[in-house]
Amino acid sequence: MVLSCIITAVVAYLLGNLNGAIVISHLVAKDDVRSHGSGNAGLTNFVRNYGSGTSVFVILIDMGKAVAACLLGGLLLKSYGYYNEGLALGGLFVILGHDFPALLGFKGGKGILSGVTVALMMDWRIGLFVFGIFLVAYLLTGYVSLGSILSSGSFGFIYAWLHPGSLFPIIVGLFLSALIVWMHRGNIVRLVKGEERKTNLFGKGKKS
Length: 208
Fold this sequence. Notes:
Elements (H helix, E strand, L loop, with lengths): L1 H15 L3 H10 L13 H8 L4 H24 L4 H17 L12 H11 L1 H18 L2 H19 L4 H17 L1 H9 L15
Helix pairs in contact: 1-4, 1-5, 2-3, 2-4, 4-5, 4-6, 5-6, 5-9, 6-7, 6-9, 7-8, 8-9
């Protein structure tokens, strides 16, 4: 089982290094999304600088790698009776690979797309709930960051409520919630100061 855990962790981390915003910005604009705007390698900065036309490919990559990582962990650990733990392990390391990619100079994204996907893989009900929180917050305020903070911050607590006996997945859920909120610490400061930019995810630039 130890070998299965190691394989899951290593492969999931490397999958996390495959950053959708960086890959598509290179393919479409021969550019690096991290050299523009906030410098973040995420969907929001991508849309602000390149528009929403090709953002679907960013979404597919970042969500696809999370699905692959979770499934790998689940399948490798299923025979030991730890399918859910395998999903959580794969999810944990794909987010770590996305946020801190060794192959990309440890300068990655904040893990929202992959994080929502991990939530869906661990429990689709939680994933839909988390996405719903993000969508409502974004549509009401226009702040992607606020929706991201509220939705990711709730993930671990909702999982603990629905699966009180699943210790390792709960720990992973709470850790990922804390990590993604921490990755948005700069956004939190700007939100408090009233300096955060609104984003039109269906177009380009500042949301009116």
